[in-house]
UniProtKB/TrEMBL annotation:
The keyword Nucleotide-binding applies. It is an enzyme of class 3 (hydrolase). The lineage of its organism: Eukaryota, Metazoa, Ecdysozoa, Nematoda, Chromadorea. GO terms for molecular function: GTP binding; GTP cyclohydrolase I activity; zinc ion binding. SUPFAM superfamilies: Tetrahydrobiopterin biosynthesis enzymes-like. This is GTP cyclohydrolase 1. HAMAP family: FolE. Pathway: Cofactor biosynthesis; 7,8-dihydroneopterin triphosphate biosynthesis; 7,8-dihydroneopterin triphosphate from GTP: step 1/1. It comes from Ascaris lumbricoides. GO terms for biological process: pigment biosynthetic process; tetrahydrobiopterin biosynthetic process; tetrahydrofolate biosynthetic process.
Length: 273
């Protein structure tokens, strides 16, 4: 069995009712959702959709039926190996708990053994157990850290849809923040960009939403976001300017108030282009 003193994990499980009860209740809920969208639930193409959707959701969230001991299944072995063990590129998908839409990615795991190792396939099983639950894309990715220099992630690719013409705009996002005793997992910045860009948008609002979200999550000393994008509504229609690029920025905290700090961010992002 796995020693529990240093392990913190979610123990939420499905209610103890029969699988058929889950399926029936969820099918009725999906039927109601479809009907409230204005669709005819008796239409041929939708007759079995509520049940199919319920089965899919039960599969997507089957991690609630698993627990850590059963997943590992005593696959912990005594081994005098003292070098790091790394398993990378474990594919995963999960559902965002805020909107019930998927996020997809890869997990990289490394650990330094202390006379014990785990069967490598069990690491993938652990990833699956937690990813098959409703998750917050930023949850558990905020870390206490006494780092007081600027953190910059540049060239985050993005695309969104202009809310005026419903055509794409495509570009890159550059993010910088000055920590206040907390840092965020770097990939989560890309997730935040993705979350707001996958909506009908205008570039100015997108830029501000990203900056405000980072500020709310981290409470840093300052945040800077620069977005540069090419808008198909300017390329394919209207003025038809193929090489036009739109740049927007949002500065908060010291990155807004202190010119030297702001210039440091802008100069560093220029170098990384």
């Amino acid at each position: 069995m796995i020693p529990r003193q240093n392990i913190r994990c979610c123990t939420i499980e499905r209610p103890c009712t029969s699988p058929s009860t889950h399926l029936d209740d969820m099918s009725k809920a999906y039927a109601s959702i479809i009907a409230h969208c204005g669709e005819d639930i008796q239409r041929q193409g939708l007759l079995k959709t509520p049940e199919r959707a319920a089965k899919a959701m039960l599969f997507f969230t089957k991690g609630y039926e698993d627990n850590l001991d059963d997943v590992v299944n005593e696959a912990i072995f005594d081994e005098d190996h003292d070098e790091m063990v790394i398993v990378s590129n474990i594919e995963m998908f999960s559902l965002c708990e805020h909107h019930l839409v998927p996020f997809i990615g890869k997990v990289h795991i490394g650990y330094l053994p202390n006379k014990k190792v785990i069967g490598l396939s069990k690491l993938a099983r652990i990833v699956e157990m937690f990813s098959r639950r409703l998750q917050d894309v930023v949850n558990e990715a905020i870390f206490d850290e006494d780092h007081d220099e600027m953190v910059i992630v540049s060239n985050i690719e993005m695309f969104s849809l202009c809310e005026h013409h419903l055509v794409p705009f495509i570009g890159k996002v550059h993010i910088g923040y000055l920590p206040n005793k907390k840092v965020i997992g770097l990939s989560k910045l890309a997730r935040i960009v993705e979350m707001f860009s996958r909506r009908l948008q205008v570039q100015e609002r997108l830029t501000k939403q990203i900056a405000v979200a980072i500020s709310e999550v981290l409470q840093p000393l300052g945040v800077a976001v620069v977005v540069e994008a090419s808008h198909m509504c300017m390329v394919m229609r209207g003025v038809q300017k193929i090489n036009a690029t739109t740049m927007t920025s949002c500065m908060l905290g010291v990155l807004r108030d202190d010119a030297k700090t702001r210039d440091e961010f802008l100069n560093l992002t220029k170098r990384q282009k």
